[in-house]
Amino acid sequence: MTTVTVPFLLSMLLGRTIDLTTYNIGGAIYDFIDYEETPRQVLNSTYTVLQENVLPYSHIGLPADIVLRIKSENMHTALGNLGLDGVLKKTSWKSNSVVIAVTSVVQTVLREIKDDAPLLDNWRTRIDSNQTHYVHAQVYGGWSIILYRFKCQHNGQEEEVRKLLTYIMGVSGQMDEKAVDLWQKAILALNQTEDLIDKVNVEVEVYSSVLHSEPISSPDSILKAVKKLPEDVGRLGQPMYVQLKPLHDLNYKFPVISADNYQEEFFLKLDKMYDDVRSTKEFIRKWMLGTTTDFTEEEEERISNLFDHVSKCVNLFQSIAREASLYKPMDKALFDSAYYLYMKGLNKGKCGIQSYNQLFLQLREDIDPDCGDEFSDKISGFLEVGDNEQLEVGEMKEGLEECKNLCLQEPKCRSIRYTEKQPVEEIDPGNSANALFTFKMKQCWLQFRSSLTTRVVTTGFSHSSIYDRKCLRTTFY
């Protein structure tokens, strides 16, 4: 028996058929009122500290092929952007963030076709021969996904936040009083970590099949909302899952198919790339609509080239996503061409580019930075920039403020790196096998990148601090 999540298939009544290679719904072979009902009244709620910028689809009960079909507009849920459409299509939470996802499912009743239910007259001719399964049972109830987002001010802080959260809370667990206690301890530790104080904001996003009657803002309020979810769902709720049986078991003329779970890996890779190019395309559009900057022909060409490339990627990924199914062979050549096109654009960028979102931000930082004459608070560490993206100025007699003033005079400067005492290793002139450690005082580097557009490295650089010039003041995340 196959179980499939069906908020997008509310027309999948008991006894109705479906082709799992296309997800096309067919006619009925049983009367949908010939069922028996079993009460369930089950609530299951878990939290997960997301280890990557991808939702744990398995926790929602969604296979990757259905995720892709929803994102490509091939399928829609009944609740639209308040439900699965929203949680799957909105990608802003992926930017500079660590997310604790609380997933809750309420099961109210199970409805199954009766063992002695008669098949409809002429059922074999009522449905297409390419249909593969029929709905044997439905699980009713409701669900909720709460994303508790720690939004970091600087690129690279996510790993430090994630490491702290998982050290205290683990990666996942049951959402209960113990989880709330651990969660609050993690927040306290976060607020007491010097490099993170006032540099991490909290945002909460809620998606559910019903409106929560309990307001949600904090870990303890999340638990209260979860406990009230069965009451909010009510006696029945809505269909959430269907249990499918193969039509071939009833008649040999219908095809035998099975899921190729190996393809899930490819679909998850595609999902990550698809989100990146979809969001980047939207960010470029918003930027072009909002900016008043006059660009040179060369700058306009850079913008156009990036937009055209991500558009090609979106179109190719969308063509795969619309047809995605774990129940039919994937066009591996088409996937490889999509992957090649995606990587080709990143490889043309500068070293260290991880995504088109980052490439977009670097482009905007280069030609439309919207910089002020202020600097953000210091960040411990150094930026991963190339030699052509920084100038080593050397000693500043007047210290940090002189370094900042130099940055304001350099049109390309987006941040500075500054150390009061910079350790330097030199060869002992009397013995080449020995090294001497000395210090250079009040050292300054002008950098053409900020912490928003390149990675912050903290390991082994306790003496070094970064100060971002306040640029890119309008963001889309």
Helix count, DSSP H or I runs of 4 or more residues: 12
Largest sheet descriptor: 9 strands, antiparallel
How many strands in all? 16
Helix content: 25-40%
H and E order: EEEEHHHEHEHEHEHEHHHHEEEHEEEE
Overall shape: elongated
Q: What does the radius of gyration come to?
A: 27 Å
Class derived from helix and strand content:
alpha+beta
| N- to C-terminal distance | 42 Å
Strand content: 25-35%
Low-confidence stretches: none
User: What's the rounded overall pLDDT mean?
Assistant: 87
Key features of this structure:
signal; alpha+beta; 477 residues; Pan_app; 33% helix; Apple domain-containing protein; five-stranded antiparallel sheet
Structure report:
The chain is of the alpha+beta class and 477 residues long. The protein has twelve helices and 16 strands. Strands 1, 2, 3, 4, 5, 6, 7, 8 and 9 form a nine-stranded antiparallel beta sheet that branches. Strand 13 and strand 14 form a beta hairpin. The model has no long low-confidence stretch (mean pLDDT 87).
Tell me briefly what this model is.
The protein is an alpha+beta fold and 477 residues long. It has helices at residues 57-60, 64-71, 84-89, 123-126, 157-169, 177-191, 219-233, 263-290, 297-322, 332-347, 356-367, 400-409, and strands spanning 2-5, 16-19, 24-28, 35-49, 97-113, 133-152, 172-174, 200-208, 238-246, 379-380, 382-383, 390-395, 415-428, 431-447, 456-457, 465-468.
